[in-house]
Amino acid sequence: MERTPSLGWLLARPIAHRALHDVAAGRIENMPSAVDAAIEGNYGIEVDVQLAADGEVVVFHDDNLDRLTTATGPVKALTGRQLQSLTFRGTTETMMTLSDLLTRVEGRVPLLIELKSGFDGDISVVERACTRLAGYRGPVAMMSFDPVLVAALRRIAPHMPRGITMEHHYEDPEWDFLSPETKFAWGQLRHAPETRPHFLAHYVKELDSPVATMARAVSGMPVLTWTVRTDQDRQMARRHADQIIFEGFRP
C-alpha cells in the first residue's frame, strides 16, 4: 500500500514560477539569479527540467533556445556542456544543470520540478532526474503534464511527492497534437489509477472545474494553481486552491 507523503511544506509559501524572474531587473526565468532572488524572498521555486543530447538534466523551459538565449535551435541538439556555455539574452549568466540547481538551493526553500516531455513515451528524464535527486536533503516534489512520466515517477521513486500539471479543456493551440478523447481523459484525471498523483497543479483560468473541486474537497488532494499573475487570478486561487505558483508580482 502506497503511503501519501506529507505536503505541508509544499503549501506553506507561494511558489515563484520559473523562479523569481524579472526581465526589467535582469533576471531571466529559470536562471541562477532568479533562483537566488526567490531564496532571498523565502518563496518556493518552480523550475522546468529537460534532457540535453547527452542525457544531462538541464534547467530550461522551452524546446528551443531562440527566445531566451543567444543561440538558436532545439535544446536536445546540444550536450549539457554546450548548453552551459550559452548565455541568457542580455545577461552573463548561463544555463544550470539540475545538479547545479540543487547545490545552489541547498534545501533552503522548497523545490517544485516540472519534468518536460516530448509526449513520446520516453521516460529518461524521470530516471535521470531521480538519479540527480538521490541524496538531496531538501524539500522537493516533481510534476509533469505527461501522465506517462508521472506514472514512471510512481514506479521509480514511489515516495517522491508527485503531481499532475493539468488544464480542464486543453484549448491552447500547443495541445492540438492531442486527440479530443485524450484531452477529455486528461481533464477528467482518467489516468489516476496509473499516476496516483499526490497533488494537482491546475491552470488558474479553469480552476473552478468539477475535477479540481472534487479532488480537493472529496479526496483531500492539495491543489496548486498556475500561473497566477492578476488580481482576478488571485481571487480564483483563494476560492479554489491551496497555494499559488505566481509571477509578475510579490505576494
UniProtKB/TrEMBL annotation:
<dbReference type="InterPro" id="IPR030395">
    <property type="entry name" value="GP_PDE_dom"/>
</dbReference>
<feature type="domain" description="GP-PDE">
    <location>
        <begin position="12"/>
        <end position="251"/>
    </location>
</feature>
<protein>
    <submittedName>
        <fullName>Glycerophosphodiester phosphodiesterase</fullName>
    </submittedName>
</protein>
<dbReference type="InterPro" id="IPR017946">
    <property type="entry name" value="PLC-like_Pdiesterase_TIM-brl"/>
</dbReference>
<dbReference type="Pfam" id="PF03009">
    <property type="entry name" value="GDPD"/>
</dbReference>
